[in-house]
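Practice problem: predict the structure.
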Amino acid sequence: MTYLLVYLFVINVITFIYMGIDKRKAKKHAFRIPEKVLLSLSFLGGSLGTLIAMFCFHHKTQKAVFKYGVPILLITNFFMIFYILTRYY
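Answer:
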């Protein structure tokens, strides 16, 4: 269980940081982090970090795939975590 919690913490921090970097790059009109990367990190457990970053940085909040997709991924992540915890612990 400790490994799972550490993994979730790390993936969410990484996702939050990536969203912040992408927002900064957007302001500077620099090369951006692809949306596929941000959504993949969300799918791999970083959906809470993405959701928090969306509101902290006001980034990607108007894009439908993020506006609706990230909350769906968050719910999916919670169910996956619940399944893992009840099945293996």
